[in-house]
Amino acid sequence: MRAVSTSQGGLRHLVSVGDHHLIVDEPVERGGTDTGPSPLELLAASLVSCTAITMQLYAKRKGWELDDLTVEVDYQPAERGALTQFEMILGFPDNLSDEQVEKLKVIAAKCPIHRTLEGEAIFTERVERRARA
Questions:
Q1: CA distance 111 to 48
Q2: What distance in Å separates the CA atoms of residue 19 and residue 2, rounded to the nearest whole number?
Q3: Tens digits of per-residue pLDDT, 21-43?
Q4: pLDDT over threshold 90, residue 11
Q5: Which of 52, 78, 105, 110 could form a disulfide with 71 if both were Cys (CB 3.0 to 4.6 A apart)?
Q6: Who's near 18: CB < 8 A, 6+ residues apart?
Q7: Domain boundaries defined on the chain
Q8: How many other CB atoms sit within 10 Å of the CB of residue 54?
């Protein structure tokens, strides 16, 4: 998978992922124009959507009704060298048994974004110079 961020002036960027495009910006108080979610908001959106989809796929395989599922996350980015803490709120429909809810809580932690944030990451940076158009 490849994502590309292209500046559109100021702090606004057009992000392309495959055939999809979205605007990413910073709030006005941080110097942006607030025309799209911030990168940190996208991180939270990635976590809640991945968690929800992972649980829905599992429930579908089990034949469980999970239409009214909600996933919320509250977090504050950590200072350098400290851990980021995420508080996830899983909202399940009341038709599920306690056993089903417990199993879905375990499955929630197995979403790829959750595992990525939980583990260590290795970053490699490469510089490419491009002539101005």
A1: 10
A2: 11
A3: 999 999 999 999 999 999 989 99
A4: yes
A5: 52
A6: 1
A7: 1-37, 38-133
A8: 20
AA identity, residue 58: Y
- Residue 29 has a CB neighbour count (10 Å cut-off) of 7
Q: Is the pLDDT of residue 15 over 90?
A: yes
Residues 6+ apart with CB under 8 A from 95: 65
Q: Contact at 8 Å (CB) between 62 and 101?
A: no
- The third-level CATH classification (topology) of the domain covering 38-133 is GMP Synthetase; Chain A, domain 3 (3.30.300)
Q: For residue range 63-80, list pLDDT tens digits in order.
A: 999 989 999 999 888 788
Q: Which DSSP string corresponds to the chain?
A: --EEEEE-STT-EEEEETTEEEEE---GGGTS--SS--HHHHHHHHHHHHHHHHHHHHHHHHT---TT-EEEEEEEPPPTTS--EEEEEEE--TTS-HHHHHHHHHHHTTSHHHHHHHS--------------
Identity (one letter) of the amino acid at 53?
Answer: I
pLDDT, the chain, mean: 92
Q: Do the beta carbons of residue 100 and residue 64 sit within 8 Å?
A: yes
